[in-house]
C-alpha cells in the first residue's frame, strides 16, 4: 500500500488492465527517455510526525514577523490591524470550504457575499461595475491591460514608473503574450511627468497605467493625466490603494476607465506574502471584457430577493478563445474578509482612518526630514507612505535598525537604481506617535554611525 493513498498492488493491477497497459512505466512511453529520471528522488528518510512538528517549529522561530518588531515596511503590503470579527466569520465552514456557487438555490449566502463585495468596491472606486475579485494587485493590473487590448486592439501601453514594480513586471510579461509593448513614463518631482506622458502618447496607445498614490507614496494628479490620455482615445487604468480612497477623489470621478488594486489592507494579514485579493472595477461598457465572475441580484418565482452568477469569463465556462481569466473560487474568501472590514469601518470610519494615516504620516515625514543626513526624496503630497534620502548606506542603516527591533522600511534601490539612497517609509494605524519617535531617534543614530564609519581613517587630519 502507498504511504499516502489506499491503492494496493491489486488495485493498481486492475487499473492498468482497464487502461490496457502492462506497467506504470508504459504510461510514460511518449516522454523521451532522456527526460525521465529513472531513479528514486534523492530525498532524505522520512520523519515521525512529532519530529516534523519540532523541525517546522524551529524553522518558524527563525522568522521575524510584524508582531515581533515595529514595522514601517510597506511598498504595497501593510501591517494593518485585522479585527477579530473577520476571523469569526470567514472561518465558518459555509464560507471556508465552498466550491463555485453553480447552484444558486443552495448558494445564496456565498452569492450575496460576492454581490455585497462588488457593491462596496464600486462605491469605493466610483465605477459602476466590479467583479468578485482576482488573485492580487499585480495580476489585476495585467488583466486590465488585456481588457484594453480587447477594447481597442492598439499595440502600445504606457505605464508610469510610479506604478508598483511587481505590477509593471506582470503587465510586461502578459502584454508580450497578447502582442502589446509596455513603455515607461518617467517620474518628475515624485509624480508622473505629465510632459513626458503627452510626448509619448499617440493614437496607437491602448492604455495609460497609473497608480494612486504611486509607489513613492505621492498623490498623483489623476484628472490631468487622464485628460491627456483621453485626447488620444486611450483607456486609463489606475491601480489604487483602497484605504486612501476614503479621503481621495475616487478614480471613476476623474475619468478613469478601470480601477484595480491590492486588497490586502482590507482585512487581510501579511501572512508572509499572502494570500490576499485583487479588486477590479470598470465602466459599464467593459462589463463583458472583465475577468473573473460577477454576481447579480434578481427575484425568484415568488418575488423574493435572490442572487445568481450573472457573468463568468473563466475558460472552464466559455470558449477558451473568449475567456479573460481563470480566477478560482477560493479567492472569494479573501474578498469576504475585505467586505467585512469595509462594513466594520463604515463610510465615516474609512474617512477617519484615512485622515488618521495622513496626520501620522505628516508627523513622521517632518520628524525624519529634520534629522541630520536625512532629506525628503520629494515634496509631493502623501497619505500613508513617503520616501527619504539617506546620506549613508541604506542597507547598513536598515540592518542597524533591525538590530533594535525596528523595520525601517523598503530600500528603494532594489527596484529604482536612481534612488539607491532612498528609503520608503509606511505608516499604518498600528504605528503610534511613540513608535514614530522611536524610529526617528534610531534612524538618526544609525545614519550618524554609518557616516562616521564611512570616513577613512585619518581623513580630515591636518598635515
TrEMBL record:
Catalytic activity reported: N(6)-[(R)-lipoyl]-L-lysyl-[glycine-cleavage complex H protein] + glycine + H(+) = N(6)-[(R)-S(8)-aminomethyldihydrolipoyl]-L-lysyl-[glycine-cleavage complex H protein] + CO2
CDD domains reported in the protein's UniProt record: GDC-P
GO BP term, pick one: glycine decarboxylation via glycine cleavage system
Matching InterPro entries: GcvPA, GDC-P_N, GDC_P, PyrdxlP-dep_Trfase, PyrdxlP-dep_Trfase_major, PyrdxlP-dep_Trfase_small
Enzyme Commission number, as recorded: 1.4.4.2
Keywords assigned: Oxidoreductase
Keyword Oxidoreductase recorded: yes
GO MF annotation terms: glycine dehydrogenase (decarboxylating) activity
Transmembrane feature ranges: none
Residues of the Glycine cleavage system P-protein N-terminal domain: 4-442
Subunit description: The glycine cleavage system is composed of four proteins: P, T, L and H. In this organism, the P 'protein' is a heterodimer of two subunits.
Its biological purpose: The glycine cleavage system catalyzes the degradation of glycine. The P protein binds the alpha-amino group of glycine through its pyridoxal phosphate cofactor; CO(2) is released and the remaining methylamine moiety is then transferred to the lipoamide cofactor of the H protein.
Family classification: Belongs to the GcvP family. N-terminal subunit subfamily.
NCBIfam families attached to this UniProt entry: PRK00451.1
Full protein name: Probable glycine dehydrogenase (decarboxylating) subunit 1
Organism: Conexibacter woesei (strain DSM 14684 / CCUG 47730 / CIP 108061 / JCM 11494 / NBRC 100937 / ID131577)
Gene: gcvPA
Amino acid at each position: 500500500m502507498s504511504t499516502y493513498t489506499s491503492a494496493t498492488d491489486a488495485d493498481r493491477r486492475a487499473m492498468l488492465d482497464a487502461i490496457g497497459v502492462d506497467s506504470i512505466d508504459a504510461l510514460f512511453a511518449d516522454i523521451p527517455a532522456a527526460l525521465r529520471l529513472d531513479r528514486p528522488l534523492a530525498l532524505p528518510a522520512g520523519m515521525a510526525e512529532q519530529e516534523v512538528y519540532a523541525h517546522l517549529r524551529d524553522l518558524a522561530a527563525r522568522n521575524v514577523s510584524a508582531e515581533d518588531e515595529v514595522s514601517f515596511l510597506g511598498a504595497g503590503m501593510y501591517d494593518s490591524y485585522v479585527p477579530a470579527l473577520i476571523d469569526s466569520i470567514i472561518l465558518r465552514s459555509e464560507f471556508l470550504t465552498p466550491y463555485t456557487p453553480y447552484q444558486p438555490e443552495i448558494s445564496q449566502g456565498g452569492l450575496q457575499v460576492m454581490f455585497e463585495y462588488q457593491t462596496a468596491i464600486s462605491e469605493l472606486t466610483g465605477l459602476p461595475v466590479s467583479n468578485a475579485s482576482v488573485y492580487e494587485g499585480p495580476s489585476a493590473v495585467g488583466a486590465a491591460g488585456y481588457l484594453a487590448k480587447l477594447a481597442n486592439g492598439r499595440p502600445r501601453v504606457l505605464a508610469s514608473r510610479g506604478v508598483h514594480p511587481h505590477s509593471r513586471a506582470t503587465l510586461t510579461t502578459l502584454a508580450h503574450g497578447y502582442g502589446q509593448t509596455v513603455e515607461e513614463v518617467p517620474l518628475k518631482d515624485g509624480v508622473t511627468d505629465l510632459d513626458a506622458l503627452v510626448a509619448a502618447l499617440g493614437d496607437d496607445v491602448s492604455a495609460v497605467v497609473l497608480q494612486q498614490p504611486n509607489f513613492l507614496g505621492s498623490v498623483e494628479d489623476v484628472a490631468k493625466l487622464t485628460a491627456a490620455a483621453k485626447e488620444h482615445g486611450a483607456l486609463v487604468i489606475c491601480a489604487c490603494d483602497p484605504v486612501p480612497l476614503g479621503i481621495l477623489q475616487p478614480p471613476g470621478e476623474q475619468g478613469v476607465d478601470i480601477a484595480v488594486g491590492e486588497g490586502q489592507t482590507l482585512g487581510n494579514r501579511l501572512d508572509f506574502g499572502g494570500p490576499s485579493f485583487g479588486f477590479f472595477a470598470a465602466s459599464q461598457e467593459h462589463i463583458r471584457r472583465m475577468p473573473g465572475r460577477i454576481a447579480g441580484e434578481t427575484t425568484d418565482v415568488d418575488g423574493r430577493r435572490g442572487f445568481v452568477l450573472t457573468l463568468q469569463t473563466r475558460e472552464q465556462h466559455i470558449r477558451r478563445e473568449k475567456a479573460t481569466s481563470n480566477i478560482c473560487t477560493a479567492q472569494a474568501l479573501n474578498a469576504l474578509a475585505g467586505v467585512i472590514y469595509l462594513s466594520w469601518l463604515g463610510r465615516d470610519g474609512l474617512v477617519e482612518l484615512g485622515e488618521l494615516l495622513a496626520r501620522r504620516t505628516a508627523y513622521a515625514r517632518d520628524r525624519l526630514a529634520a534629522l541630520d543626513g536625512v532629506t525628503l526624496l520629494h515634496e509631493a503630497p502623501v497619505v500613508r507612505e513617503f520616501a527619504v534620502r539617506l546620506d549613508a548606506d541604506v542597507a547598513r542603516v536598515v540592518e542597524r535598525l533591525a538590530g533594535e527591533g525596528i523595520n525601517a522600511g523598503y530600500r528603494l534601490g532594489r527596484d529604482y537604481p536612481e534612488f539607491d539612497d532612498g528609503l520608503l517609509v509606511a505608516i499604518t494605524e498600528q504605528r503610534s506617535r511613540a513608535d514614530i519617535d522611536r524610529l526617528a531617534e534610531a534612524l538618526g543614530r544609525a545614519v550618524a554611525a554609518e557616516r562616521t564609519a564611512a570616513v577613512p581613517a585619518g581623513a580630515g587630519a591636518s598635515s
